[in-house]
Design a protein that fits this description.
The structure is a single chain. By secondary structure, the chain is mostly helical. A three-stranded antiparallel sheet has the order 2-1-3. It has one domain. It has four helices and three strands; from the N terminus they run αββααβα. The longest helix is centred in the N-terminal third of the chain and has 39 residues.
Amino acid sequence: MMEEIHIKRCRRGVGSRSLSQECITAAAIFGGAIVVAGAFLSWFSLFAGLKPYRGVDFWTGRLLAGCGALSMLAGVWFLWQHRRSLRWGIGLLGFAILVFASWSLIQLLILFRELTADPMMVVKLGPGLIVAVFGALLIFATLFLGEG
């Protein structure tokens, strides 16, 4: 009787745990890829799109791309070793990327407001930094997937 309960509990735990581990792995890898893609997309352009500026043209974009790549590596590492400390590390890395990308977005909006005051600069915002923020949200969500 006790052996049956233990076996059922193990089966249920393994099934739900592996699903949450797969979700955490996928969120870390795909979220990191989205952050890297956002760093390579245009953040803004001048002169009606004639002069685009990608995220990797600036140190903030390069830092975001590096953190996204680090998240992808951590996701692959988590696929091999399902350690709780690694899961927390991925989630906290996602939080740090989210804070940094959000701060960069606020700074970009301030720059956009200043540049639109000049009628010679036709400024247009690009999707890159917003894409990076969504990728960071996905990485940060790994803290809330599955059981503790």
